Amino acid sequence: MIKNIAIIGAGQMGVGIAQVCALANYQVQVVDVSEVQLLQAQSSVAKNLERLIAKGTLDPIAKEKALKNIAFSQKIQNLQSIDLVIEAIIESLKLKIQLLKSLDQLLPDATIVASNTSSLSITDLANATKRPDRVIGVHFMNPAPLMPLVEVIRGDHTSDSTYRIVEDMVASLRKTVVHSKDSPGFIVNRILMPMINEAIYVVHDGIAIPKDVDTAMRLGTNQPMGPLELADFIGLDTCLSIMRVLHQGLKSDKYQPCPLLVHYVTIGRLGKKVGQGFYEYIPLSDDFPGFWPPI
Asked: What is the pLDDT of residue 287?
């Protein structure tokens, strides 16, 4: 039974997952090497919960309880009590393997290690550890507090008990679980990223400007956000990383990243998080770090 969770990575995904787990009454540690990132994460959770109160979907008592359930630290505390670790660091196989190898030396043998990877092989990650039967994929959608879906991915060595425990934990978060084989991109990104990549090709080939591409897809297919807006929100570097995983893993030219996507990432146009991608973004105030909306 899972009671204590450590989340490695205090970025947008890690913070969102921490908030969801804390609201479900798990004891959560958010761990990051950056003290600045941790302070921003702590502030972000508090503000997000305040917004829920303002919307009438959360009461102040629940907010205070959730905040008490979360601790922020540059290293995992009380290792023996950690039942589950969720890594939510940058989408890099090399960095994730390095992290999992480090965790393997620290954590109790019974601790389950889950990766929030959006495309990488769970089996490859598990093979880097001494606990391959207790490694599993739990891919939360972004933003985790709002999106109701979680992909649960079983690696070649994931045990039945690990699978059941994690599936039950995710269900306790009031999320809908879908099951995917350990294949590049899993379900969502296997379908979504080629669509985004094709939308970028439409711009690259001079067929339409980004605004018209997004308007066409929103109004023509009833999508809440156009594919280029969504790419900016996800991060163009993340989109490129996933396309490369699909291209290399599935060995098909239909997954070749668009040259315009490669170019934008090369010159640092990474999307909303840096204020510039397919759109320009207005800097927000100091109270709300980031950029919004597209202009």
From this structure: 46
Fold of 4-180: Rossmann fold (3.40.50)
DSSP alpha helix (H) spans, 151-209: 160-172, 188-204
| Cα pseudo-dihedral 223, 11, 84, 26, rounded to 10 | -80
Q: Give the catalytic positions in this structure.
A: 118, 139, 151, 189
CA distances from 53 to 48, 58, 63, 165, 260 (A): 9, 5, 8, 31, 42
Beta-bridge partners for 8: 31, 87
Given a contact cutoff of 8 angstroms between Cβ atoms, the answer to whether 188 and 239 are in contact is: no
Whether residue 291 is predicted with pLDDT greater than 90 in this model: the reply is no
Would you tell me how many other CB atoms lie within 10 Å of the CB of residue 95? 12
Domain topology for 189-294 = N-(1-d-carboxylethyl)-l-norvaline Dehydrogenase; domain 2 (1.10.1040)
Question: What integer is the mean pLDDT of 221-231?
Answer: 96
Name the average pLDDT for the chain: 94
